[in-house]
Amino acid sequence: MASSCCQTASTEAGGGALVYTCPMHPEIHQERPGRCPKCGMALEPAGAVSMSPVPRNSRLPRIPWAIGACVFLAIAAFFLWQEHRAHLLGALPYILLLVCPLMHLFMHRGHHHHSDSNAGTHRHGAES
Q1: Which of 104, 17, 44, 105 shows the shortest CA–CA distance to 3?
Q2: How do residues 45-80 score in pLDDT, each as one tens digit?
Q3: Which of 8, 47, 53, 125 sits 20 to 30 Å CA-CA off 107?
Q4: pTM for the model
């Protein structure tokens, strides 16, 4: 009996023993388990090779979900911006005024000079 690629398990003509193949090199056939002579992978029974077009560890089923989530978030962000743009832009001058003291504290450190290295070079007012 000749083996074909559509059978789930290949058998030899007389014995009924399984034929072992390499998952990466289907042209490799051996009568007993071992290693592939080309790549060194373990040989598997011919019936254990998956006939599905998508590999088991493929990320393809997750891709449509991720694309759908990104599209949903983009649409939600667009509608949030469209509906609340006037409120956000109307509050912008007040937000800038509230941020000024914080910028002064963090960028100028409140004009407090605690280090001794600048004590002789920096003058406050008209000191003599």
Answers
A1: 17
A2: 887 545 555 555 555 566 788 899 999 999 999 999
A3: 125
A4: 0.30
